[in-house]
Amino acid sequence: MTSSTPLSAPMPSPLLFRARPIIQVQALLVAGIMAILVGGGLHLWQGHYGPGADEAGAMISATEADVVERPVVAEAADEAPATTGAPTQTALAGLRQLMDTAEAISLRPETVTRVVEIEAGDALYDTLAAAGLDAAVASQVQTAVRSVYDLRKLRAGQEITLTITRRGVEETLDGLTLQPEATVDLTVTRSAEGQYVAQRIITPPERRRFAQSVTIQGSLIAAADKAGLPRNVVANIVRMYSHQVDFQRDVKAGDRLDVLYEQGVAKNGSRVGEATVIFANLRLGRATHPLYRVIFRDGSADYFNERGQTVRRGLLRTPIDGARLTSGFGMRRHPILGYSKMHTGVDFGASIGTPIFAAGDGVVKEVGWKGAYGRAVVIRHNDKISTLYAHQSRFAKGLKVGDRVKQGEVIGYVGNSGRSTGPHLHYEVRVNNKAVNPLKVSPNTGRSLNGTLLVEFRRGVDRIQREFRLVLSGQQPGSAKVAATEAP
Question: Among residues 173, 202, 231, which one ends one of the domains?
C-alpha cells in the first residue's frame, strides 16, 4: 500500500481572486495536478518516470518549494513502486473533479461597470459597438432608447455607464444609464426574456431664488450679460422699466441694478428653464426705482412700484437697449435719396445683432422682406395701433405671422437690410394707419392697488427687501447667493 504525505499550498487572497480570476484558476490547476499526481503514486522527482519526462521532472522540481510544505516521508517513498505508465484511476478522477471545480470558479458571474463617451459624429450604436457590445445587442439598445428619447439630442462627450455581467471571457450587458439633459435620465434594463427596455425619468427642478447686484458701466444689457444674469431676466427688466426710463439717456456709468429672481435648479446643480424676476431696483444716480412682482388670485401677475402703481402702460418708448437716437421723426434730408422726405419713424443706431423688443402685447401681422424697410416685423396691438421694426439682420427663431407676443419679448435683431446706410433699427408707431412720433405717444396708465390689496402689498414689500438682502449675503435658507458683481 503506497502512502504519501498530503501536499498543501498557500491559498491566494480573496482580493487576488477577484482581480485576476482566470490566472488564479490556472495556478490552482497546476498545484492541484501536482497534488493528484503525488497522491496517485507518481513520485516524479524521485526518478520514476518514463521516456521524455525530463522536462516535466525539472518543472516539478522547480515548483516543489512553492507547493510542498514538507517532503515525502522517506519510508513511504521506499515502499512506492516504480511507475512508468498512466496515472491511476483515482488520480484521473481527482483530476476531473479538480477541472470541474476550476471551470465552475472561472464561470462564476462578476458584475462590472464601464463608462464610455460618445465621440463626435458617432451615433449611440457606434458608441456601444466600440465598447465591445455585440452588433445585435447594440442595435436593440439603440432601438429601445429611440422609443423614449430623440437620439438627435445626444451630444459628443455624453457619458454612458454600462452594467455588465462577466462569466469567464463572455460578457452580457445588463443595462445602461445616461443623463442627456439636466432634468432627464435614461435607463435601459435587460428583461428576463433577454429584451432591452428603456425608460425616461424626468426629475423636476427645484425652484430657488438668486440675488445679484450689478454695476453698469456700458449698456444695461452688456453689464447684465457680463454679470451672468439670465437673458430672459434682462429682457423682463428692460420691459419693466421702459415706460419710465430712457435707457439711452437716463442710464449712466456707475448706476446699479439690484435683482432678486427665481429659477429652477436641476439635481446636478445646473440652472434650467426660464427665470422669473421677483424684485428689481434700478438705481440711477441718487434716485431709486424699485419694482415688485404681485401674483393675483386668478394666477395673473404684474409689477408695481413702491406706491402700488403698475408699470404696465402703453408702448415702449425705446424697444431696444443701449442704442443711440440717430434720426428723429419728421421731415429730413434723406441720407441716400438726397432730398427732403418725411421720416415716419425714429432710428436707433446699434451694432448688428442687438436684440429688438416688441413695444407692446400684440399679434404679428407681417414678418419678412418689406421693400426699402428690408427685413421687417409689423405688430398689431389693437384695432387702432400697430408698430413696425425695420432693417433687421434676422428674426427671432420661429417667429411667424399670427404669433402672439408679449411686451419686451425679443422679435428680431438689429441689421442693415433694405435701404440703409448702416446698422440701426427704424421704429414706427401708427395710429389708425397714420404715422405718429414714437417718442411722444401718451402711455395709458394701468391699474393701481388700493384698499386691503395695498396693505398686503406693503407688507410683502418689506418681506421681499429683507429676502433680497439675505440671499445676497448668502444667509437665506433654501436660496442661493450670487455675489455682487462689478461689470466694467
Answer: 202
